[in-house]
Design brief:
The chain is mainly α and 60 residues long. The protein contains three helices and no strands.
């Protein structure tokens, strides 16, 4: 799947199944990366481990 198709999927991923999300879910961030080979050179877990989330304290 290319970046264009991924973008369309993200825009519509909750529109066709609102009962599962109860209308409250949305994508907050898209992290795009590129492998050096077509088969990939990192496991999904290694990539997930590189992304860290922190709770925002100054949200208004």
């Amino acid at each position: 799947m290319g970046l264009n198709e991924s973008s369309k999927a993200l825009q519509n991923m909750f529109e066709n199944n609102r009962s599962a999300t109860r209308g409250l879910m949305s994508a907050r961030r898209l992290i795009v990366f590129e492998h050096s080979s077509l088969m990939g050179n990192k496991s999904a877990q290694e990539l997930f481990d590189r992304d860290k989330a922190e709770r925002a304290t100054d949200v208004t």
